[in-house]
Sequence to fold (150 residues):
Amino acid sequence: MIDPRERRKRAAEACRKRFHHKSYKPGTRDCPLLGLHNLRQLGVSVPWAKGLRWKSEADGLKTLKALGFASLIEALDSLGLARIAPATARTADIVALPTTHKLGALAICMKDDGGRTLLGYTEASPDAEILTNVTEFARDEQGYCAWRVI
Fold:
């Protein structure tokens, strides 16, 4: 069996290869698919994700609402992943970033550096970028929106 640290490293690298410097395109390259790709690389079952399709952010929000979720944060919480403080994030953990999008914005931790190096889409760039020195994270009534994946 592969060491969990190596599994996390491989998952983060697979996300980097698939998304880094690729333009945002809803339903093809976006935050939900980045998060799902990471989860699948780590062997996490996402039963409600099979067969989902959307072509715009509005479609994506409708799809989430049809599943009973108001945001990506609620969808991730439904998987039973442990919520963590972003400062404890390890490679391949998922964090939510502050955004004006109703869906939410997810990013993948690329190093064991407390969530300070992330891969994600932001409003500042049309492409998925490696974000460094990240210090602001999304919060809700449960606290910070970050999850230990494995």
Notes: The CA atoms of residues 19 and 88 lie 24 Å apart. Helices lie at 4-19, 31-41, 57-66, 72-77.
